[in-house]
Amino acid sequence: MATSVGKSKFDVAAVRSDFPILNQPLPNGQTLVYLDTGASAQKPLCVIEKLTEVLTHYYSNTHRGIHTLGDLVTTEVEGAREIVREFIGAPSVDEIIFTGGTTASINAVAYGWARKFLKPGDEVLLNVMEHHANFVPWQQAAIATGARLRFIPLTSDGQLDLTQLDTVLTDRTKFVAVTGMSNVLGTINPIRELAAKARAKGALILVDGAQSVPHGPVNVRDLGIDFLVFSGHKIYGPSGIGILWGKSKLLEAMDPFQFGGNMIREVFLETSTWSDLPGKFEAGTIPIAEAVALGMAIKYVQQFDPQAVHAHEMELTAKAFQLLHEIPGVTIYGPGLEHRGSIVSFTVEGVHPHDLADLFNNRGVAIRAGHHCTMPLHEHLNEAATARASFGLYNTLEEVDALADAILYAKKVFRR
Ligand code: C6P
């Protein structure tokens, strides 16, 4: 396990020592300033070592009772499933489905639940801050079933406008899909309140936790939600692995999304029956080493005091706010600090975000630029693209200075 285990206080220097990639120069010799954790988080050594351990010592497919390696690896995978269950407060380990990531998890619900249960005239409630992964599957399900999409309007500072909720959440609403935290605006949405309102209308609610789950504790029972999805690679774990959690009675009622090995009980010539949960939704071979390493990534995150992590990440965000606000021509999108997480999207007047990212890269500063898979949101913002800095537990206040310096440098290059 990592060197930072057991720290009573959050210690960013110790955290950084857990991440090999942060402690080596870039191929061009520069020091990496990694401000792109919202796209993919870096990996601590314990996660890297866990992947290697599985592949080196007990890799095989997960068939318990066939041979020794199968038993060992199955025990590890099921151990990881239990870690996820405990992490999100799910009542049963059978409700934890390993998928390829957030996108795959949402598609499983949009196919398995929405296409089965939505009828013409039913409504699905979205909003324009959603990532395409929590937008397009619902759009396609609505086209396929004749259901109608409705949208919670946004306030001028990029929050869900709950004063309009009663207009768009109706007796016809059957499903609400909402992000826990916007990958562009950083907005943290009031999930408990939305879940209660959805429940009162008899609608189900899915939370896209891709951005929110890595940054703070989540408890699906406390929140009162029906589905939670997230990705391993954004929570310091491997890519290619993600989680779909759903209430067992919903998962049992849903159709599988993918068909093949592992997910069947019996196959006849003309028909088949499905395996119990979670196997029903795990067709084929799951990413085995990645699932085990996701368990390790969660244990890594869990060792920190969540309040200390939050305080650290918000200190970085507050400093970015302050420095960027002081630079003429910079616009920051999204709400104030009290309603957001550690994502800061911005534009610099007269400099295209892609040029910004390119110039930043010359200085070793890694940010993301573009529409960040949120074209409806960028249409709403009236911007084709934005630049985005996103912070994780390993970032430092000095790296926020490097961000501000890089903006000043870009302005100088473009004589703005
Ligand atoms: N966002 C970014 O913002 P996948 O690719 O399936 O692991 O995650 C998709 C996804 C879903 N919802 C939200 C809120 C997200 O932020 C993302 C991924 C990345 O840089 C890549 S576009």
Cα Rg:
22 Å
Count helical runs.
14
The CATH class of the largest domain: Alpha Beta
- SSE string, helices as H and strands as E: HEHHEHEHEHEHEHEEHEEHHEEHEEHEH
CATH topology of the largest domain: Aspartate Aminotransferase, domain 2
Q: What is the strand arrangement across the widest sheet? A: 2-8-7-6-5-3-4
The rounded distance between the terminal residues' Cα atoms is 48 Å
- Given helix and strand content, the structural type is alpha/beta
- Secondary structure: number of strands: 15
Quaternary status of these chains? single chain
Query: What would you give as the CATH superfamily of the largest domain?
Result: Type I PLP-dependent aspartate aminotransferase-like (Major domain)
The largest β sheet comes out as:
7 strands, mixed
Q: Which segments are poorly predicted (pLDDT under 50) over 5 or more consecutive residues?
A: 2-8
**What count of structural domains?**
2
Named CATH architecture of the largest domain? 3-Layer(aba) Sandwich
Helix proportion: 25-40%
- Provide the residue-averaged pLDDT: 96
What proportion strand?
Answer: 15-25%
> Which descriptor suits the 3D outline?
globular
Q: Report the bound ligands by name, code or SMILES.
A: ligand C6P
Please explain how this structure is put together.
The protein is α/β, with parallel strands linked by helices. It has two domains: 50-302, 3-Layer(aba) Sandwich (Aspartate Aminotransferase, domain 2); 305-415, Aspartate Aminotransferase, domain 1, CATH 3.90.1150.10. It is 38% helix and 15% strand. It is built from 14 helices and 15 strands. The protein has helices at residues 12-17, 45-58, 68-88, 102-117, 136-145, 165-168, 191-200, 220-223, 248-253, 288-302, 306-325, 353-362, 375-381, 397-413; strands at residues 33-34, 96-99, 123-126, 148-151, 173-179, 204-208, 227-231, 242-246, 264-267, 272-274, 330-333, 343-348, 365-366, 368-370, 386-390. The strands form four sheets. The protein has a seven-stranded mixed beta sheet, with helices on both faces. A four-stranded antiparallel beta sheet has the order 11-12-15-14, covered by helices on one side. Helix 4 (102-117) packs parallel to helix 5 and helix 12 (353-362) packs across helix 14. The longest helix has 21 residues, at 68-88. The termini are far apart. Bound molecules: ligand C6P. Ligand C6P is lined by residues 38-39, 101-103, 131, 133-134, 179, 183, 208, 210-211, 231, 368, 372-373. The site of ligand C6P has 17 residues, from helix 4.
